[in-house]
Write a structure and sequence with these properties.
With about 325 residues, the protein is of the alpha/beta class. The protein has 14 helices and 12 strands. It is globular and about 60 Å long.
Length: about 325
């Protein structure tokens, strides 16, 4: 019987997000709900599987790991892009790589970016902790109103445009920059195209909404963070490597800025990471796409993809790393 591994179910929602019974009737399906200790652990535990279904941006699958999975015939990922997975290498080895739809992940990610901005502006995590500890308002820092403030959006695609609408509804002035952004495209989203340096120096909130690529990796370095206003909020629900991590740690430690982060260089974030103990950082565990509606599509498509592969008629097949 074909062995199938369903990985990265860290929130333990896979079983209830789709009807697995048709697949379980035809294959030996194993669910993994905790992260691997490292590549050696992943290789040892996955070497017996012919089909692996993953949630993107959780377990890395570099070429060095794929080389240690001799039985792997089909690999399914959620969405169609995954920076941590050697998709091109798998395809070149003859492994069938399938993708899924993304559901309303644009809306869910933009809504989380909005939530992180509000949580940082009003010190909601610290306030929640104070109430639970019996310190009603005592020791709770005051917040800042966002109405009349300026948000700078780095990236104005489908998620950035939604964030622009949310910020406008709050009465914020919206600036935007990306390498290919035009005045007309910015205006259509209700934003004003601005040079990156001017955006960073002007914005009270900077929110990142770019796809990670070699061109965008490290798009915010030490000099960029130094241009941000004292006390400005940096929101990142996109990808951690868009920002130089050492520079961001330094900016947070010096209390120059507040960071509101959903993505990290290493996930899960280690408990001893500087972000975990910084009072001017708001953290969520990569929840941008983690909503019921998105998971339902991810896992239902994953089941369909695996069944089609078993039938010898694979669907939603990636022909290249770029789909």
């Amino acid at each position: 019987m074909t062995k199938i591994a369903v990985l990265d179910d860290w929130q333990q929602v896979a079983r209830t997000s789709a009807d697995w019974s048709p697949l379980i009737a035809r294959a030996d399906v194993s669910f993994f709900d905790t992260p691997f200790a490292g590549e050696d652990d992943a290789a040892r535990r996955l070497e017996v599987f012919e089909i692996i279904l993953v949630t993107r941006e959780r377990t890395p699958f570099p070429a060095s790991l794929v080389d240690r999975l001799p039985r792997l015939k089909m690999f399914g990922l959620t969405g169609a892009r995954a920076g941590l997975i050697d998709i091109a290498g798998m395809i070149s080895r003859g492994i069938t790589v399938c993708y899924t739809g993304g559901g309303p992940s644009g809306s869910s990610t933009a809504e989380l970016a909005l939530a992180l901005m509000l949580a940082a502006a009003r010190n909601i995590p610290a306030s929640d902790a104070a109430v639970r500890e019996g310190r009603f308002q005592v020791g709770t820092p005051t917040g800042h109103v966002l109405d009349g403030k300026t948000i700078g959006l780095i990236g104005l695609g489908r998620i950035g445009a939604r964030m622009a609408a949310y910020a406008s509804a709050l009465g914020m002035k919206v600036l935007a920059w990306s390498q290919n952004l035009t005045d007309d495209a910015a205006a259509a989203a209700g934003a004003v195209r601005t040079a990156k340096d001017a955006l960073l120096a002007t914005a009270d909130v900077v929110s990142l909404h770019l796809v990670l690529s070699e061109r965008t990796r490290g798009i915010l370095g030490a000099a960029d963070l130094a241009r941000m206003k004292q006390g400005a909020i940096l929101v990142n629900t996109a990808r951690a490597p868009l920002v130089d991590e050492d520079a961001l740690i330094a900016a947070v430690r010096s209390r120059r800025i507040v960071a509101a982060l959903d993505v990290f260089y290493r996930e899960p974030l280690p408990r001893d990471h500087p972000f975990a103990s910084a009072p001017n950082v708001v953290l969520t565990p990569h929840l941008g796409y983690s909503v019921v509606e998105v998971y339902n599509e991810y896992y239902q498509h994953g089941v369909e993809n695996a069944l089609a592969f078993l039938d010898g008629k694979p669907i939603r097949v990636l022909q290249s790393a770029g789909k």
